[in-house]
Amino acid sequence: MVRSEETVLSGTVIYGDDFDIVQGYVCLKDGIIKEVGEGRVDCDLEGIICPRFINAHTHLGDSVAKDPPFMDLRSLVGPGGFKHRVLARTARSHLVEGMRRSVLDMISTGTFGFLDFREGGPEGTGMLLEAIQGLDVVCSIMGRPDQGSTEIDDRCFGLGMSSTRDMPFDLAWEYVNYARSLGKGFAVHAGEAGKDDIEGALSLYPDFLIHMNKADRSDLEKVARREIPVVVCPRSNLFTGVGLPDIGSMMDLGITVAIGTDNVMLNSVNILEEMALISKYLLHDDRQVFKMCTLNGAKIAGIEKKTGSILEGKEGRVMVIDGSSNNMWGSTDPLASIVRRARPSDILAVF
User: Which of 12, 91, 98, 113 is least crowded, fewest Cβ atoms below 10 Å from its Cβ?
Assistant: First the structure.
């Protein structure tokens, strides 16, 4: 069944796109899931085996300005705000080091892939690529042009735009049209500080939206009709005091929802904390919450055929969680326990 050079993981498997609970094993070879089966086998490691996470919205460039004073959203991250003043006076090497530290933190907390909104044109993109050099991560950069230009760095996955209220609408159209001409994706923040930028964002036909915590049911119905995914970042919304997203309505309407940790100034990149908050306060559906930070994140990144769940033939982006840790011992529902209470110290290994 297995050969010595393969890695065999045994225990409780969170299996398939429906995240079924299977008592069995997973066999990895050359980075690919070669076999999943039921029953006990000799193994290299035993525990709860589940897919690793995708963080669908980050601002890693802000990793040097952690835990700022409490202030309104515009004063914090708007043009000329706290964030931009700090970044302007910080050395390039320090910015790169901050980004690398955040990526290492993501890896240690179970995340292997992320979509980052990166400012600064080609130089900003280059800094992030330098920060991840040598690290086994999947990085999709949502870049922005330099001031006075519409060009997007070829190394970017797509265009990542702030609120449409931050620029003339004609300029936003130029950015989007240029991105589309290159076959790039496009995403935009909307409905974070207020409702007034939602219609403008929808009129640009984005591939996905960020936040939408101010959206009402009618706004979400429009999003659902256009089949636009939404990335929610509730811990960030709590910090800035802008209100929480109506994830229940998003799910009722069939919107694909993924999870991001947003700005590193405000929160750690630990997806486990984001899941626990959503499950306990915003959506009492652990399976759907888990899907948001695995398969749904992979869909937004366009890699769901390769990863996002444990299936034969997919990449072996899995982790093993210690079901016998002091924190996890006594669990009657492994998936619920991962979503609601798992901590980084419960992770035995990542692959």
Answer: 91
